[in-house]
Amino acid sequence: AYDRWAPSVWVAWASLEAEEAEVERAALILRAGLRYTNARPSTTTRRDVAYLHHALGCLHLRRRRPRDALRVFEAGSVKLEAPSVAGRRDREASCLLLGAAKARAA
C-alpha cells in the first residue's frame, strides 16, 4: 500500500521543507524519492515518474537553476515508456515538456 502513495509522500515532505526555506533539503528528499521509485520498477507508474521529476525540476526553477531543471525534466521524459493508448494526449509527458520549455526560456 505504501508504494502506491510513496510519490505523494515524498513530494509533500519536500514541499514542507521548501516552505521552511530548506530548499536544499527538499531537493535531497525528492532525489531520495526518485531513487526509491527507481528501485521498484514493478510498482512505479508513469504518473509516479513524472510527478517526482516535475516536482524536482520545478524546485530547481524556483532556485533559479534552469540547467539543472532542464536535466531533470529531460531525464523524466526519457524514463516514461510509451503510453498504452495511441493518439491520446499524455499528461505525464506534457508536464515534463512544459517544465523543459520553461527551463530553456529562463
Keywords:
106 residues, mainly alpha, globular
Q: Considering DSSP H and I runs of 4 or more, what fraction of the residues is helical?
A: over 70%
Estimated structural class: mainly alpha
Question: In this structure, how is the largest beta sheet organized?
Answer: none
So how many helices? Answer: 5
N-to-C span: 39 Å
| Nearest-integer average pLDDT | 86
What fraction of the residues are assigned to beta strands by DSSP?
under 5%
Low-confidence stretches: none
In a nutshell, what does this entry contain?
The protein has 106 residues and is an all-alpha fold. Helices cover 75% and strands 0% of the residues.
Walkthrough of the structure:
The protein has 106 residues and is mainly α. It is built from five helices and no strands. Helix 1 (2-19) packs antiparallel against helix 2 (23-38), helix 1 (2-19) runs parallel beside helix 3 (46-62) and helix 3 (46-62) runs antiparallel to helix 4. The longest helix is centred in the N-terminal third of the chain and has 18 residues, at 2-19. The protein is globular. The relative contact order is 0.14.
SSE layout and pairings?
Blueprint: H1 2-19, H2 23-38, H3 46-62, H4 66-79, H5 91-105
